[in-house]
Design a protein that fits this description.
The protein is of the alpha+beta class.
Length: 733
């Protein structure tokens, strides 16, 4: 992130914070300090009466208390209170007494008044509040009065707004829509283009006592806290979920009133819903019952307060708005801190990552890349490097170690780099030649002594090495990484060719081909490379020249005869059919070729019998199996087919638990098992409850034991008589 972008974020945050704190919007209007609360309502919507009743109701309340802090506001509330409650005073000589007078609602506000008071929430949270009472014509979209800009300026800097709606306008379609249009215009001014609404907002339906079905306290708040998710929906969904809630739908008259109000205010609600969860709808009454109409004036009717005044829900909107503002400020502070932490984290990541990226993505890979380029000329082998090539690599490592990044940020990499550089510097070709010659001499010693040869394991067709063999192979393979222009490569490559044929001779003791190949190699090496052969190579070639293939075969045969007992145990101890019918046959045929029929008659007879018994399994032969268990009252159908063919289910039979059946099978045949459960209609295997095809080369061994039918989750168990382990071929002396 660029520094300019970070500064822009801070600038936007400071502007938003200033706006939410209630500072003036445009120059020219000076508003008192304090939490600015806006009441946005048209003429006759009840703003003045609301402030008066709110002040009176909050004097003894526990959740919200209001105390006026300036004389102008106190005088305004007192005058309105005396008018609404019909209380006056009479002064006689030395005496002041209350007197009862005519009740009347305050005259419509002609100008504007700033109201200032302290609000205490829940007895522990005190805040200075500034609100504003004004001529309702100032928010009309049709009237043009000087007060309009001042009202808009006040609303722009508010921390929360109550939108007052007079339900008496519901019957006057044009007036109702004009009020709604004014509400929408104000909202768009606060948060245009469907952006998130920046403050808590409440819709307050005043004079709710005129609405059919309104009974009082339990209908003040429209949306319960647990239903706040309604506000995240679009308007149509919101309307449907509100009207279908039990609290509304249980009172048909009240449901009709709520539907009528929400529908009339749909344009306003459509702008609010989905943009904030800090929204609520209140139904209140400043008097508690419908006032008495006593006359009319131009543009309005004249009412007098009822005989008994019992306000309903007056505190709730103001209390909710203050609580929402405080909650919103906490969230805003948390977001500010979170953004600040995120920016610090991002800066830290960037500052920390730059040297790491440079080191691990550029500096170190660059060193490795240059080293690989030089080594590529020798197929990656250090042994093939000349003096200039080694010096080029050494210079690259020295340059890496001197870099500022490695010295100050990654000093741990300096030591291994210097170790590698020193290894290139101290490289000694003579030592490598001496090591390879030592391995070749060890190779010659192994060739001369058959007891030191690697051992071929007949059971798994592998060769077991001794430590000396591993050492020889390590050196031969190591020096073959050089190019063919170096002496080391040529010498190690000749030794590796001889070793490969030596292993082939050990694996195939009856085959003379590997020994003939060795004899040809020895002849070629002595003829073509005699002038460059080292003394160690000459010793190795001499060791091979003195060996006779026939003599080696006799040694192998003698070793096989002495180890026959262990071969029998190994073969009989492995019950895997693939081993007994394939690997074991191959090994036994190799052993048989090296045995003397006269001297080893017993072993020859034993092996021949094994081979004959194994051959019988390649022809179809009879087997008997027993159905040990079948779940419930299910039954089975079994059919054997050639490999890859489908069963015809031509046999009319049903196989139950405890039955013994006979069938014919050979290696490679498939076995098909079908199950019909007790309630399934049997079609003799053609449409079973489930089927289990066994298609392995040795499928009969898969049939032995537990079989699971995956589609229906059932299991069966089958055994053979006699057991299959007793029927497979064995080496028996």
């Amino acid at each position: 992130m660029r520094p300019g972008s970070i500064l822009k974020i801070f600038k936007k945050g400071s502007k938003l914070a200033g706006k939410q704190k209630g500072k003036k919007g445009e120059p020219g209007y000076g508003w008192p300090p304090g939490l600015r609360i806006g009441v946005y309502g048209h003429a006759n919507s009840g703003k003045t009466v609301y402030f008066t009743v709110l002040n009176e109701e909050s004097k003894i309340a526990k959740d919200l208390q209001i105390s006026v802090i300036d004389n102008a506001t106190a005088g305004e509330f007192l005058a309105n209170y005396r008018a609404i409650w019909g209380v006056g005073s009479a002064t006689d000589v030395g005496t002041v007494v209350d007197r009862r007078g005519d009740k009347k609602f305050p005259d419509p506000t002609a100008g504007d008044r700033v109201l200032k008071f302290n609000a205490i929430l829940d007895k522990n949270k005190k805040v200075s509040v500034v609100t504003y009472d004004y001529n309702g014509r100032a928010v009309s979209i049709t009237d043009r009065i000087e007060l309009k800009e001042k009202v808009l300026d006040f609303m722009d800097g508010c921390s929360g707004i109550l939108f007052f709606f007079d339900p008496k306008t519901l019957a006057a379609e044009l007036q109702s829509q004009e009020h709604v249009a004014s509400f929408v215009s104000m909202l768009e001014r606060l948060a245009p283009l469907k952006s998130r609404l920046p403050m808590p907002i409440a819709l307050v339906v005043t004079k709710a006592d005129i609405l059919p079905g309104f009974t009082g306290e339990n209908q003040i708040v429209l949306i319960n806290p647990e239903d706040e998710n309604f506000l995240a929906e679009d308007f149509e969904t919101f309307l449907d979920r509100v009207l279908s809630s039990n609290r509304i739908a249980s009172n048909s008259a009240w449901a009709g009133s709520v539907r009528n109000v929400l529908f009339k205010l749909r344009e306003f609600l459509n702008v609010v819903v989905g943009r904030t969860l800090d929204f609520q709808i209140f139904f209140i009454s400043n008097t508690g019952q419908t006032p008495e109409k006593i006359g009319t004036e131009v543009g309005r009717s004249i009412y007098v307060p009822p005989a008994k005044i019992h306000p309903v829900g007056v505190r709730e909107p103001f209390y909710w708005l203050l609580k929402s503002i405080f909650r919103s400020r906490k969230v805003s502070r948390f977001r500010t801190v979170a953004k600040f932490v995120m920016l610090l984290s991002l800066l830290w990541i960037i500052l920390y990552s730059i040297p790491n990226l440079y080191h691990f993505k550029m500096l170190l890979p660059g060193l490795e890349s240059k080293e690989k380029v030089v080594l590529a000329a020798t197929d990656g082998s250090v042994l093939g490097l000349n003096t200039d090539q080694r010096q080029e690599i050494i210079d690259q490592y020295r340059k890496y170690e001197r870099s500022w990044t490695v010295n100050y940020l990654f000093p741990n990499f300096k030591y291994p780099s210097s170790e590698i550089r020193e290894a290139y510097t101290a490289f000694n070709m003579g030592m490598a030649v001496k090591t390879l010659d030592s391995a070749l001499r060890d190779f010659a010693s192994v060739v001369r002594d058959p007891s030191m040869w690697p051992v071929f394991n007949l059971t798994d067709s592998t060769i077991r090495y001794q430590p000396i063999h591993d050492k020889i192979l390590e050196q031969l393979n190591r020096y073959r990484q050089s190019t063919d222009y170096t002496e080391l490569y040529k010498r190690s490559n000749r030794g590796k060719q001889l070793w490969d044929n030596f292993e082939k001779a050990i694996k195939n003791p009856t085959d003379s081909t590997p020994w003939l190949a060795i004899a040809q190699q020895v002849q070629i090496f002595q003829t073509d490379f005699g002038h460059e052969l080292s003394s160690a190579e000459k010793d190795l070639l001499k060791a091979f020249s003195t060996r006779k293939a026939r003599k080696e075969q006799a040694v192998v045969a003698q070793r096989i005869t002495s180890e026959m007992g262990s071969f029998v145990e190994q073969i009989n101890g492995i019950t895997d059919p693939a081993f007994r019918f394939e690997t074991a046959l191959t090994q036994l045929r190799q052993i048989l070729a090296n045995l003397d029929p006269v001297v080893d008659r017993q072993n020859v007879t034993m092996i021949n019998k094994y081979l004959q018994d194994a051959a019988k399994w390649s022809q179809r032969r009879k087997f008997t199996c027993k159905i040990e268990s079948v779940p419930g009252k299910a039954h089975l159908h079994i059919e054997v087919t050639e490999k890859g063919k489908d069963p015809k289910w031509s046999e009319v039979n049903q196989i139950f638990e405890g039955d013994k059946i006979e069938f014919y099978w050979k290696i490679g045949d498939d076995i098909h098992i079908a199950m019909d459960t007790a309630k399934h209609v049997c079609q003799l295997g053609k449409d079973p409850s489930d089927r289990k095809p066994l298609k392995g080369k040795y499928s009969i061994f898969e049939m032995n034991g537990e079989i699971t039918f995956g589609n229906i989750g059932k299991k069966i168990n089958i055994s053979f008589v006699p057991p299959l382990e007793e029927q497979i071929p064995k080496l028996e002396p």
